[in-house]
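SAMPLE LOG
Freezer: B-3
Tube label: C17
Construct: single chain, 397 aa
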Amino acid sequence: MGTESPRALEPLVRALPRRRRALIIGATTLIFAAVVIMLSFRWVLDRGAVRAAAERRLSATLGQAVTIGDISVDVLPVPALVGSDVRVGRPEETPSFYVPRVRLVPRVRSLFSQPVVIDAMILHGLVVSVLHDRNGDWHFPAVAPAPGASGQGDIVIERVQLDGGRVRVLERRADGLREASSIDEVAADVVVDGGGLRLSEITGRIADAAIAGEAIVDREAARLNFEMAVVQDGDLPALLALAGIDRPAFLHVPKPAAVSLSVRIERASSRLSGAGSLRAPAVAVEPLSLTLFEAPFKMEGPRLTFAPTSFALYGGGHRGTITVDVSQTPARWTLESRVTDLDVGDFLTALTGSEQPIDGTAATSGALRGRVGEPLERTVQGRTHVTVTNGVISRFP
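STRUCTURE (predicted):
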């Protein structure tokens, strides 16, 4: 079946009203251009060059053998080649990669010359499964990126991007694997740089909290740096689960908090370490209310330490150290703290849920411990020393 150019069709529409004539000529031009582009795509596809170039580039980027089962033509919304049935390494294993679709967007004018230039190879829906085992060790897919040319022969691939990606954190428990948390809607530019894989300008979300940052994966470690400017109370379970911690039932953030985090997972030891900071205008540790909460924190294997932890508490100020140990089930927490200028009456009223017949200003110091996931008043143990000044006991019989 042949095709006619828009110029050859002009006599057929010359008698039509001007507006309708313009619409018909425009539509015919678009159809003609689409047919030309599709025929050009078919010509490229018949040679199999795009498939081979994409497989080479992805294999070099991910450090594992990549095969693309089928490539089809997609004209709208922009001309592209779509690869499906993409296999990366051994997808049946965990941890693993999974790529449902690869989209290759060519520079259209290059289809009529050499080399053919692919402006962007977009990995749609890339899923990376990371395993956190019962020993607290972390395992992620074997990635050994190899610097590779952007193209070979007649095909040049300018850049690789992620769109709609996902990082799944799986936990191995007695009853098998389960997904503990995830980072969703991940988008980034992917570059093989100095023997490593660099993801720059990462965007995504943990629950509903938006993240922004970058990541580097090489033969020694995986490193992730990101910030979350707004963390709501509903985001806490997914955020804490990334570190292997269940959200304590007594912990809430009534107002949005902010988190910055740098994480490193060593390949040789499978151990996680990192540092960051947490800032929140208000934190509820039921039944108590804390304000102006601020704490740098460090992660070393199964231990998460917040130090120094400072916040305001019923007229007083707190400074101390909070440690969470996830190597036990359930996880354990410990607190070493000192509070000065505490309003005793307000504190005891909040703690007991009823007004107390005592007032004054207190200084306290102590060491407490408990289990994550249990009500605070049922699990807390330890010692504390309280000094009250200007104390008043009222309401005697």
